[in-house]
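Hi P.,

Sorry for the delay on this. The queue was packed all week, but I finally got your sequence through. Input first:
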Amino acid sequence: MSSREEVLILDDDEAVRRLLSTIVEEEGYVPKTFATAKEALKRIEEVRPIAILADIYMPEMNGLDFMREIRKSYPHLPVIVLTGFPDQNVFRETLKYRISDFIAKPFDIETVKQSLQKLLGSDDSYADAFLETVTHRLRKARLNLGLKQSEVASRCGLSTSQVSQIELRQSAPSVTTLLKLCRALHLTMSELVEGF
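Then the structure:
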């Protein structure tokens, strides 16, 4: 790993920025901290981070607006969202911007470390584990409700083949499809992705 591998930290709380900086340093990366999204956007070109840790609720420009801007130039940059208000609507909004992880505050130091290790370690292991967990939970919820794949499909406006492919991990579902499946199976997105 190069000594220049930097992780951008965006949070309006100085204590949180200091704690995240310590965690990032312990993982062998260089932390670059910002108190405002506007400042982070101005300086992102010079920082060239390999990942971002960002709060959602901040003054001036919130984390969602920040992610919208980031995705224009950096569509694949890993972003870990940290928020003190983890609800389904916030989670749904962050998914639009292809977040890599969603961590509730107050957070456990080990949770942040594990998230960084998953994202910056092997490329596919995190995505594979996520897809395996989500598809297992969808199938389990369907079976617990005593529903056939065709019944779930009709509730979601999907084909039975699509539901089957998702459960067998032959097809990765979109966020919209996941939301439809959650509604059909009486799951919240938080329950579906718990632990990720």
